[in-house]
Amino acid sequence: MLLLAGAASAAAPQLVLDVARFRTLAAGNTYEVELYATVPGNGLTYIKRAPGSYQAAAVLTLQILKPDGKPAYSEVITLKPPVLSDTTIAIKNPQSFLKRITLPAGQYAVRGELRDLYRKSTAPTQVVQPLVLDFPANAPALSDIVFLTKAASQTTGQSNFIRGNHLLSRTPNGAYARGAEQLYFYLEMYQAPAGQPLKLHYHIESEEGAAADADARIDQAKSGRPTPVVGELPLGPLPPGDYSLTVEVRNAAGKVLATRTAKLSRGTQDYAPEGASLPR
Description:
- The structure is a single chain.
- With 280 residues, the protein is mainly β.
- The chain has two domains: 1-134, Immunoglobulin-like (Sandwich); 135-272, Immunoglobulin-like, CATH 2.60.40.
- It contains no helices and 22 strands.
- The strands form six sheets. Strands 16-22-21-18-19 form a five-stranded mixed beta sheet, with no helix packed on it.
- The two termini are 24 Å apart.
- This is GWxTD domain-containing protein.
């Protein structure tokens, strides 16, 4: 018997696709692209596996396409969210998949397609977005900003969820829900000028004009290596809405050497799921 996952199961399954660009340490103008796909459990169909045990499944296709339409990367993944004992619960935890792909500089398109494995009559969900790999070659530069659910913690471990010796717990689509009082983020700086004292400036601003600023110190990495930037800002004073976060690297005179901006949102009505689990 098919048990639908509440009213959300009547719509197409949801796919949130976050893309982040980083430089590699390899010779040449190459990049490491992170694709972080999140599938909310509320949009999937759950079937009965055993008494008191229900599970959903989705097939995710990820591609990075060259300008001629040929794939530079393509992969098909089956995602299975955690087993539920009750399909009527309001929040069903999501499932996530993280992939890192090394690519040369250039222009691409990222394409994601999601199909509900147990509701094949529903049209697949598709997400397409441009991808341009063109950081400055001989000047300071910042990677994309990765938003986090909690502060990045230092580690010596090795996994796809670790970057710059920091364990990163990502916030899909930069969405901070009810109960989130702090904004956490991670990015990297490249080609920092040697021997110069640098500082960071953070600016967050809503479409309605609410804003906050903060400064932070930065410890530069050894020459030739990226410098991790681990930042945070309080969300408490800011009203709900859509925001832009801008991170600037400045020299001692206040000149901006590199900048990066990313979108995020703050909501105060609904709680977020506990967090995405690793694929099985």
